[in-house]
Design a protein that fits this description.
Elements (H helix, E strand, L loop, with lengths): L1 H19 L4 E9 L1 E12 L2 E10 L5 E12 L8 E13 L4 E13 L8 E14 L9 E14 L1
Antiparallel strand pairs: 1-2, 1-8, 2-3, 3-4, 4-5, 5-6, 6-7, 7-8
Amino acid sequence: MRKLLISLFAVAALGTGAAFAQSGYWAGVSAGWPGAVVHFGVENVFSGVDVRANVGYQYVGVAGFGLGADVLYGLNVDTGTLPLDTYVGGGLQFGIASGGSLGVGAFGGIEYRLGEVGLPEGGVFLEVGPSLGYRFAPVAPASNVFFDFIGRLGFNYHF
């Protein structure tokens, strides 16, 4: 497990460094179900695809810290005059508590950019979607495989 985490961290770090030359990036925080997260993202790493690294604390269910990475794809949805960005995404999450866990999730989201209130770099976002995971050491009476959902409300600052 340790070698897997180190390998994923190295790939993310090298990929992020190369992506800085290509486009912008953002950092943010969120809270919701199942926990609170601090994240860092890079725009347009691949054609229209953003990448985001997450570090968080899960306070619902088995409490503990976690690491993750998501890919986000922007959708061209007509929102009229509202400054909304719509997107879909998904990613992997690694839990570091009670023996560890590995999960995959998918979500849809919207971000309201705060340009109209004098903070064009800021944005408030909401994400919701399902997740599926595997606990390496289940907590009785739970099984190894679990189904959950993701629900986050947060703030991004775009650089």
